[in-house]
Design brief:
Elements lengths: L9 E5 L4 H11 L3 E6 L27 H4 L6 E4 L5 H11 L4 E4 L13 H7 L4 E6 L14 H7 L24 H23 L5 E6 H8 L1 H10 L16 E5 L4 E5 L3 H10 L14 H6 L1 H12 L4 H10 L4 E3 L3 H6 L1 H6 L2 E6 L2 E7 L23 H9 L3 H9 L4
Parallel strand pairs: 1-2, 1-4, 2-3, 4-5, 5-6
Antiparallel strand pairs: 7-8, 8-9, 10-11
């Protein structure tokens, strides 16, 4: 078996909460040695974003919750107080041999600790230094803090998400999960990997990467934003309606809901056959997709009445036979019980000190030659402090005890 793709890459991770930690977790899954720096006593802010928390074997309150678990597997946790000069020196010493240093502090915060890019670059010219912020390193909003929902609002995502105008509950709506954090994490990983390739394969140098949530959400709006740039009009909120083919949306059936996307005229004709109304496919108002878009409310209303005549399983089976894209509207219990999801192994089990079979979500990338098979549970706070400082920096037990007493680690 070949080594994992990033075996040998050393990453010093000073990020907290979600976007940065998600990126570092992705790189750790792929084989990078990721040292996560946390505050002594409290750790990553995400450790307080509970419940639910795992049950401590001794019944004590703890900081091991679902939010932290989603973004911190396969890492080592080292506690360092970077507000102290000794703690800052520990970070600089670790940075000397790192390939990548990641941080998501407010713009300029780390300069006062002499942990900014220019300082780190002076001691390690080849380092890839990645800053993940809300608004980026430049611009009038650069000093501001922010969280995912703020960027969903400011970046335009909420303006095109939610029930259609005129419907009950209409108005801007937030996407459920922290999707901007997740997408920013992916962009961060892409940036780091690209910079590493440039340095190692193209004879380049280390560099500073600037990734932010606002840039990410704007770029992610893709064809929606491009529509505005072409005609100056913001696309309306469509609820569950699709963005191209018509009809497309959630339809209520006799016992639940399904999602249907009719992508072309052939699929429309076959769907009409399945629904027992083949004449709709020859109706002048619905023959071509553009016609169905113009008369969208009418065809959606007709389909809504037809789908109520039978159960979800029946329609899914018949539509699948007809080659029409559709799927059930699953809750998480149904997602993880789905035989395809189970075959793909999306739920993995890891051994955690509090739970011998802790369930996590596997890395979604599958390699034929370097598969990600072994997962380590998200670490307890500071679990690896002694091992890392002893092995990487040569600290002996006496020095480690002194640093602990001084609350530096």
């Amino acid at each position: 078996m070949s080594p994992l793709p990033l075996s040998g890459i050393k990453i010093l991770d000073l990020t907290r909460v979600l976007a940065g930690p998600l990126s570092a977790q992705m790189l750790a899954d792929l084989g990078a040695d990721v040292i996560k720096i946390e505050r002594p006593g409290t750790g990553d802010d995400a450790r307080a974003f509970g419940p639910p928390y795992l049950v401590d074997p001794e019944g004590k309150e703890n900081n091991n919750n679902a939010f932290y678990f989603c973004a911190n597997r396969n890492k080592k946790s080292v506690t360092v107080n970077i507000a102290t000069s000794e703690g800052q020196e520990i970070i600089r010493e670790l940075a000397k041999t790192a390939d990548v240093m990641m941080e998501n502090y407010k713009v300029g915060d780390l300069k006062r600790y002499k942990l900014d890019y220019q300082t780190i670059r002076a001691i390690n010219p080849g380092i890839i230094y990645c800053s993940v912020t809300g608004f980026g390193q430049t611009g009038p909003y650069a000093p501001r803090a922010g969280y995912d929902a703020i960027f969903q609002a400011m970046g335009g995502l909420m303006s095109v998400t939610g029930h259609m105008d005129g419907e009950a509950g209409a108005g801007p709506m937030k996407v459920g999960p922290s999707i901007v954090d997740y997408m920013t994490g992916m962009n961060t990983s892409i940036g780091i990997l690209s910079a590493l390739y440039h340095r190692d394969a193209n004879g380049g140098e280390g560099q500073h990467i600037d990734v932010c949530l606002l840039d990410t959400v704007i770029a992610s709006l893709s064809h929606y934003a491009q529509i505005y740039l072409v005609n100056g009009k913001t696309p309306p909120r469509r609820g569950t309606w699709g963005n191209g083919g018509m009809p497309a949306g959630v339809f209520r059936c006799a016992d639940g809901e399904l999602m249907l996307v009719v992508g072309n005229d052939g699929q429309f004709a076959r769907t009409c056959e399945v629904l027992g109304s083949p004449e709709l496919a020859t109706n002048a108002k619905f023959v071509k997709n553009n016609d169905r878009v113009v008369n969208g409310k009418e065809i959606m209303a007709i389909f809504a009445g037809l789908f109520l005549k039978n159960k979800v399983a029946y329609w899914l089976d018949e539509l699948e036979k007809a080659g029409v894209p559709c799927g059930p509207v699953n809750d998480f219990a149904q997602v993880f019980a789905d035989p395809h999801v189970r075959e793909r192994g999306m739920e993995i089990k890891v051994n955690h000190p509090f739970e011998p079979e802790l369930s996590l979500i596997r890395n979604p990338i599958t390699f034929s030659g370097t598969p990600v098979k072994d997962y380590r549970a998200p670490p307890l706070l500071g679990a690896d402090t002694r091992e890392v400082l002893a092995s990487k920096l040569g600290y002996d037990d006496a020095k480690l005890e002194t640093l602990k007493k001084q609350k530096i680690i």
